[in-house]
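Help needed: design a sequence for this.
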């Protein structure tokens, strides 16, 4: 198992990445949901406004989705050896987004 340490400036790095791709919290959330990765706009904004020195609540699935929406090496967010993290996140993303594996979306309201 690969050990890695999250950078304390995750929010700043995510904000810079989103600016580079012309996205914000709402559009990131929409892009993630369109590929089957759950992330509310509120959670996206929490990730963007996390206090320095604290590590946000971030699942591997969410990280894989962010890396798909805004293609960048996982090393961008981590300090230390990420080893095979890129391959594992790619495999997780591919498996998760296969049509047969997608979770059903929200049901329409009557």
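Sure. Designed sequence:
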């Amino acid at each position: 198992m690969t050990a890695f340490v999250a950078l304390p400036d995750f929010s700043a790095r995510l904000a810079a990445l989103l600016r580079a791709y012309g996205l914000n919290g709402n559009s990131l959330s929409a892009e993630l949901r369109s590929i089957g990765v759950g992330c509310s706009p509120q959670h996206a904004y929490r990730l963007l406004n996390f206090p320095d020195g604290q590590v946000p609540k971030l699942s591997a699935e969410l990280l894989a989705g962010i890396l798909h929406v805004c293609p960048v090496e996982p090393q961008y967010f981590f300090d230390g050896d990420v080893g095979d993290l890129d391959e594992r996140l790619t495999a997780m993303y591919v498996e998760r987004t296969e049509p047969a594996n997608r979770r059903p979306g929200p049901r329409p309201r009557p």
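The first strand starts at residue 5 and ends at 6.
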